[in-house]
Amino acid sequence: MKVISSIRTVQNILISLRNKRKTIGLVPTMGAFHEGHLALMRTAKQECDFVVVSLFVNPLQFGPSEDFNRYPRDLARDRTLAKSTGVDLLWTPDAHDIVPPDLATSVDVARVTDRWEGAVRPGHFRGVATIVAKLFQIIKPDIAYFGQKDYQQTVVIRQLIRDLHFDLKMRVMPTVRETDGLAMSSRNQFLSPEGRAAATVLYRALQHAQQLVKKGERHCHYLQKEVESLIKKEPVAKIDYVAFCHPETLEPVDQILGKTVLLMAVKIGSVRLIDNVIVGR
Ligand code: PAF
Question: Which among 124, 21, 142 is positioned nearest to 66, based on CA atoms?
């Protein structure tokens, strides 16, 4: 596996691969790899001739009071883990190349960013969309891989791909979970031992909703109350939002009439966790 920072060098490698009709997979990441990232890398490796993993902790997607400086960084560890999946190139662009001080262009995806993470974290999706557009533009992948855990992000990126005519396929892979159901996340390492135990409440609440829907419950108001009261049983859990939404528009729905996404964001102490599940069909 090559580890390269230079944009130009990476592009030259990719040009020669494209000339040989090789397919290119891209796994965009901010590092701090866990099984969720590794699953994306392994799938990319099965589906593409050449896999690029980008590793860039994107300052544009962190708000002023968020954890950009605290975000875990360990290149040696990430390098070993990426290599173990068989990816071909770990691309670690320099911040001044990707986000130069005179950067004047940003990408705003409207509507699907209005609510949920977009409302709680103003500017977050502008930062994500701007960087992802740059990554797509530089790498020009045939397939790009994302995790379902960041559900709203996948909706935003799908819209971005459509609106800017990026000629690529997007693959969204299922959330990878710890054995007790906690969704893998780089932020889990900030949980205290008590917080770690309490954090399983997100998955328990998602499962509870799934079971109620399976049994025939259709009223989102009732389902939401059920989910919220389960979460509130954990004294350290503080709900940011729990919402049953249309899976593409992310608008809240009153009834489960078809495929619906249940989105949640819950603070466990100072650690903010998000998770989601699809209910209905
Ligand atoms: O999901 C992430 O890790 C980031 O939001 C992404 C897509 C790499 C953009 O910085």
Answer: 124
Residues 8 and 145 in one domain: yes
37 part of the active site: yes
Which H or E element spans position 83?
Answer: helix 75-84
What is this structure's pTM? 0.98
For tokens 């994306």, what's the residue? 40
Q: How many helices (H) and strands (E) does the chain have?
A: 10, 9
Best residue among 66, 145, 150 to mutate for probing ligand 1's pocket (most ligand atoms within 8 Å of CB) is 150
CATH of the domain at 225: 3.30.1300.10
Provide the pLDDT for residue 274: 98
Instruction: Assign 58 to helix, strand or coil.
Output: coil
Taking the centre of ligand 1 as the mean of its atom positions, its distance from the CA of residue 37, in whole angstroms, is 11
Q: What residue owns the CA closest to ligand 1's atom 9?
A: 128
Whole-number pLDDT of residue 28: 99
Measured distance CA(221)–CA(249) in Å, rounded: 19
Predicted pLDDT of residue 67: 80
Residue closest via CA to ligand 1's atom 7 equals 28
Name the stretches of the chain with pLDDT < 50: none
- Residues 77 and 151 occupy one common structural domain: yes
Residues with beta carbon inside 6 Å of ligand 1? 28-30, 58, 61, 128, 131-132, 150, 153
